[in-house]
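FW: tagging you since you asked about this chain on Friday. Here's the raw sequence from the shared folder, copied in full. Didn't touch anything.
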Amino acid sequence: MGEQYKVDLHELDNVVRQLKRLQGDMDEPSQKVKYSTTIPKTAFGKDFLEATDLSSAHDDMQEYMSQVVKALQDLIRDFGDKTERSRGAYEDQEHDTKVSMNG
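HL: got it, structure written out here
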């Protein structure tokens, strides 16, 4: 006979909840990287040969970090959406199976 498989829908619900919480928690780092790490160009000095290079390197790193945080947010959102859809599909299948067994 075929083996039986059971999916714990409660655990999938927990995963979705945790991912949504994590997604919300990522808003703060995103805002900090974007707005709290800005250094004015004048802070790197005046009449300092490398000031422009330092300022540019800072801007590049700030942009890179923003992209990293956004990529993490997108990954978390995508995984959460897929987990939620999977949970719904399992629930639908469970319901269909019960209906078909009860005639």
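FW: Residues 64 and 75 are 16 Å apart (CA to CA).
HL: agreed, and Helices lie at 9-25, 27-36, 51-101.
FW: great, closing this out.
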